[in-house]
Amino acid sequence: AAYYLAGQKTVAASLIRNLTIDIPRYSELYYTYGSDTRDKAIILETVQMLGDKEKAFKLAVELSNIMKSERWMSTQETAYSLMALSKYGKGSKGIDIEYRINGTEWKKITSNVPVAQLKLDLSKTSKGKIELRNTMKQVIYANLVTRGIPLAGQEKKDDRKIKMSVSYTDLKGNEINVNELEQGTDFIAEFKVENPEINDDYRNMALTAIFPSGWQIYNPRMTGDQFTVKTSTPDYMDVRDDRVKYYFDIYRRVYYSNHVSHVDNSRTFRIALNASFTGKFYLPSTYCEAMYNNTVHSIHSGRWIKVVKQKNHI
Which of 106, 147, 178, 186 has the smallest count of CB within 10 Å of its CB? Predict the structure, then answer.
């Protein structure tokens, strides 16, 4: 493609003349963040530029099927696929269709390009029917995308290709129950992440721990040595008012002969907290994920907690 854009069309054609457009399945979690889907999108952009309609059509259909499926796509895959397909369909007509919700009046969706997106306000509609009417001569592909978060307390613990445990201790390391804490209590949140896989290293991991508004975080960058806790060192740590985010790599378990040797396959992060304000609060779920691979994640369910006034001790 670079040679073609530089005006060397003959050289460009000769470079790819005998190359296949079939790419073995792979996914890279760092460096180039490439994948077979991303590469096929780059190939589509190149072959349609060089006028190879047969290969371009095959790749366009393949990428279209991937994008309209339920398969998760990384930002690299999504961006390159949209760019390549938009160039492939540059000569297509725009969109002029109609839609309605629950039998109301038909409304138009128009666009000068072959892609249109409409945000629907369904907050006042518990159920119903969305209808589309195609007044054009070309085929229209429609997708309905909904997003949301689970209701408080209904998250389910889920470990996929990685394990995470969440616990709380006092300042001496004794495990405590945080369902009900006295106001003013200092304690430690502990997050242990383990890679149980034998073959896979996980890079660009992100762990997000959100805390209830009744608790306050002792930011180690501000408190200094006031609460020195033993903790793994992340590549980057982001401390905010109500949450802490850790970014790190975690490596595989390695087998040696008849025994297992653990090679840097776990991380334990700790942060000091204080039960500051009385009341009933929600402790959100803790989530750990590979940022470029949705098959690797772990979620620890949330729950309701209380902070109560200090009891009179004799």
Answer: 147
Take residue 300 and report the two structure tokens written for it. Answer: 């620890």
41, 83 Cβ separation under 8 angstroms? yes
Give the separation between CA 218 and CA 185, rounded to whole angstroms. Answer: 12
What distance in Å separates the CA atoms of residue 32 and residue 237, rounded to the nearest whole number?
23
Residue (of 192, 208, 209, 200) closest to 295 by Cα position: 200
Question: pLDDT per residue over 153-174, tens digit each?
Answer: 777 889 999 999 999 999 999 9
Quickly list DSSP for 158-182: EEESSEEEEEEE-TTS-B---SEEE
What DSSP character marks residue 249?
E
Distances (CA, A) of 288 to 127, 168, 203, 229, 268: 33, 17, 12, 21, 13
pLDDT per residue as tens digits for the range 94-116 = 788 999 988 889 999 988 877 78
Write out the two tokens for 135.
């007044």
Hey, is 76 helix, strand or coil? helix
How far is Cα 80 from Cα 117, in angstroms, rounded to an integer? 19
- Give, to the nearest 10 degrees, the angle between helix 36-49 and helix 53-67: 150
